[in-house]
Amino acid sequence: MKKLIFILAYTAAALAIFSWSASAKNERLTLLLNGQYTDKLTEATEQMNELEQEVRKVLLYQDHTAAEEPLGNIWRLSSEIRNNISSLPLDREFSSEWMNYLTRLGDYADLASTGAIPQEKWGKALGNAAANLDQFSTEWSSATQGMFAGGTGPENWFAQVESEKPDKRWADLGQAVKTYSESDFPLTASEHDEQKKKDLEHLEDQPISRDDALSRFKKLFPEYEGATVHVSESEPDAPYPFYHIRFQDGARIGYADFTVRGGHLLSLLVERPSGKGTMPEAEIRKLAEDFLRQLGYEDLVYEESRENSHFWHLSFVRIDPDTGGKVFADGVQVKLAKDNGEVLGVNAMEYIQKEVLEAQPVKPFDPEEFFTDGTQVQSEELGYTANRELVQRLCHLLVVTKKTGGRTDTYRLMVDTETGEVLKSELLR
């Protein structure tokens, strides 16, 4: 009897200690995420104000050279804001509309800087954008005020994001941004085709059930077998139907989205405390490649990587089987933890619905005739990029160096294999 009492008392004490430890870890995670999200929200707000100023500034100039700097800043800021917004637990419909608007604004500025859009056309569009951004900034401040204050934690954030009746402020804000997008940057015929790809309109796979999506999630991520999981379906007015799987496993919280048609993994994001130690990049890369093969993505090759203190971000691109060219528009990005190589993020949106590539002749290309004396070709392969009409074109993908004024510059160029037009030119630093 005494042994039984001792065992029961010991078990109760152990459970109490475990409960206290788990609670403390969750509290630390909440504080950590609160700080991260608050920083990103503050940074995004500051960048929005700066973006509006740059849009207004560019309207001063008729001279193309003078407009280059603010147009470049518009492209840069729109990209930076997208990166911050994508990592915040905001209303999904609003995030989708705002990310789309920022993408179109940045792309428009980039095209304007190259002279692809006449000054009078981009001047009118950016004039509308300036007025809309001014109105948006006020509504944004109201919607985000105190979002991560007062000890609000992951459960509250996800409950708001998953709510079938989203906060009216976010719904109104998302609708306003949609109106801005349609009025400021109306789609061309080519852009309509591009939008159809983004909206996954041409997926022909058979639909899967909610249980099938959950089984797919558990098969891909067996480490979350014991996690608390909640599965919801996208709203009827979403661009495409998908299942949203939210999960929490101890200190880990995250979500995964799967298409209803075919059960393709669209995206994954996991938040957890960073551990100690650092795995070699080669091992991280192999883990990413193994994971992509597990998804069934056999036609991807590694393209590039970048790192920060705790993560590796790896990019992969699809290889066209007919030409061997890299299709950069059909890429997958994978985020892995440095400490143990755990997959913490995936973006497979671009890859799921592959580009339709038309046959194109490859005319003889002589670098010695194409470049000036002293230009050295370091590498040459084939790749696809979009021209001004957003049509994918097969190109000679070249990395060249040129010594000028005592300094050697490295350039990455994409030259159309049929027309010889330089579709992309990038100075690598």
Automatic annotation (TrEMBL):
<dbReference type="Pfam" id="PF20769">
    <property type="entry name" value="YPEB_N"/>
</dbReference>
<feature type="domain" description="Sporulation protein YpeB PepSY1 and PepSY2">
    <location>
        <begin position="169"/>
        <end position="354"/>
    </location>
</feature>
<dbReference type="GO" id="GO:0009847">
    <property type="term" value="P:spore germination"/>
</dbReference>
<protein>
    <submittedName>
        <fullName>Spore germination protein</fullName>
    </submittedName>
</protein>
<dbReference type="Pfam" id="PF14620">
    <property type="entry name" value="YPEB_PepSY1-2"/>
</dbReference>
<feature type="domain" description="Sporulation protein YpeB N-terminal">
    <location>
        <begin position="26"/>
        <end position="112"/>
    </location>
</feature>
<dbReference type="InterPro" id="IPR014239">
    <property type="entry name" value="YpeB_PepSY1-2"/>
</dbReference>
<keyword id="KW-0732">Signal</keyword>
<dbReference type="InterPro" id="IPR048402">
    <property type="entry name" value="YpeB_N"/>
</dbReference>
<feature type="coiled-coil region">
    <location>
        <begin position="34"/>
        <end position="61"/>
    </location>
</feature>
<keyword id="KW-0175">Coiled coil</keyword>
<feature type="signal peptide">
    <location>
        <begin position="1"/>
        <end position="24"/>
    </location>
</feature>
